[in-house]
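WARN no homologs supplied; continuing
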Amino acid sequence: MRPDETPTSTSRRASPAIRLALVCVATFLVYLDASITPVAVPAIRADLHADVTAAQWLLDAYTLGFACLLLTAGSLGDRFGRKAALLTGAGGFTACSVACALAPGAGVLIAARGGQGVFAAAVVPLSLAVTTELFADPRRRTRAIGVWGGVAGTAVALGPIIGGLLVQTAGWESMFWINLPIGAVALAGLSWALPPSPPRRPSRNGRAAGEGRDGMPDAPDAPDAPPADGLRGSREAAGRPDVVGQALFVLGSGPLTFAMIESGRFGWSSPVILGLLLGSAVVLALFVRWEIRCPHPMLPPRLLRVPAVAVACVVNFLGLFGMYAVLFLLTVYLQETRHLSPVGTGVRFLALTGFLGVASMGAAAVVARLGTRTTMLLGLLLVAAGLGGLTLVEDAGGYFTYGWALVLLGAGIPLSSGVVAIQAMMSAVPADLAGTASGAMNTFRQFGAVFGVALAGVLSPQRGEAVTSMNVTFIVAATGALAGAVVTAVVLRARNDHAGRPVPTVEPQQPSVA
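OK structure emitted
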C-alpha cells in the first residue's frame, strides 16, 4: 500500500488523480454525446430528408443499444479485464461517432448511433468500476465517485447548449466530430495510465478471487458469504456472460421497439406490426424461461421478486419515460413548430438539465433528512407536477408559462430514482448482489427512455410542422409518475425509510440523459 492509500497494484505509471481525470474524460464523452443529440434532430431530418420515425430512431437506437448490453458489460469486463473492456468501449464509441459524422443517409446514421449505445454500455459501468479501484480509503473513494458523477452531470447539463451552438454554427456533423479529439485523449491517456487488469476468476461467493465486497482486496482467510434469498446460482457464476439470455433479450426488445415506433407508418393492424409484436412476446417469454433455468442469468428473476428492487425498477422506468418523451416532443415542437434556433432550444432545456444536475448532487442530503421513501415520494410528485405543467406548452404565454414545469421535472427525477432508489432497496438485497440489482434498475431506466420516445410518437404524432396532442403524452406520463408514487407508498415500508447498506460503488447510478 502506498502512503496515499492507493492500492499497490495501481502505484505505477500515473497518480490516481491523473487516472481519475482520464476516466472522467471517457465518461464526459459518453454523457455529452447522449444529451447533445436531441437539439440536432430537426437539422438532421432536414439535411438527410428523414421522416419523423427516423427522428425517433436517432434517439432510441442509442438508448436501445445501451439498455440491451448494460447488464452484460460488467461481466465482460471481469472476463477480459476491465482495462481492455474500457478501452474497447471508448475506442468503439469514438469510431462510431466518426461514422455518424460521415453518414450519407439516415439508415447509416441510425446504425452508427446504435453502435455508440453498445460501446457506451461498456464505458459507463466500467469507468465507474475503475474509479472505485483507484483509492483504498473509503472516504477518498467516495469523493472520487462524486467527481465521476459530477462530470457526468455536467456533461448532461452542457450537452443541449453545446449541441445547439455546434449545429447552428458548424452543422450537425460537428457534434459527432467533437468526439474524435476527446476520444483520442481518453484512449491514449487510459492506455498509458492504467496498469494491465487481468481477467478475474470468479469465486464461490460470486466475487473475483481475492476481492472483497467493496471491490478491494479481501483478507486471505475471509470466509465466503453464505447464500441468501435463493440466489446462490447467480453468485457462483458471476463474471460469466449469459450469451443465450443476452441474445434473447436483444431479439425480444428490438422488434418490440420497432413495432412501437413504426406503428404510425404501417398501422397497428398491419401484419408487419402484429407479427413483430407476437414474435417479441414469444421471444421475451423464452427469455424469462431461460433466466429462470439458467445457472448464471444476466437478470436473476428472484431479484425482481424483492419488493424494494421491483419498486426501484418501476420508478426508474416511469421517470425516464416522461423525461425522454419531453425531450423528443419539445425539441421537435420548438424548432419545427415554433421555429426556434438550436441554440434557443438548448437554452430552454437548461431549466431541465441544470436542475437535474443540482438535484443529483443534493439528493444524498435530502435522503439523510427525509429518508428514502419520503424522498422518492417527493420526487415522483414533482415529476407528476412538472409533466402536468407542460400541458401549458401550447398556450401562447411563452417560455415562462411552462419553464417552471421543466424545473420541477429536472428536480424530481434524481429525487425519485438513481441513487435514491438504490438506497431504498439496499436493506432487502444481499451486499454481494448490490451490483446486479443496480444493473437491473439501470436497465429498466434505459428502457423507460426507449419507450418514452416510442410512445410519444404514437400518442403525439407530427402532422407536417405541427406536433399534435402533446398534452396526451404529458398526461399519460404524469399518470405513470403518480402510479409510481402509489406503488412506492404501498410497497416500501416507513420503518425501513433510513435502513439499508451504503449505496453500492460497483455499478453506475446514471444521470438521466437523452
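Confidence is low (pLDDT under 50) at residues 1-12, 202-238, 495-514.
OK
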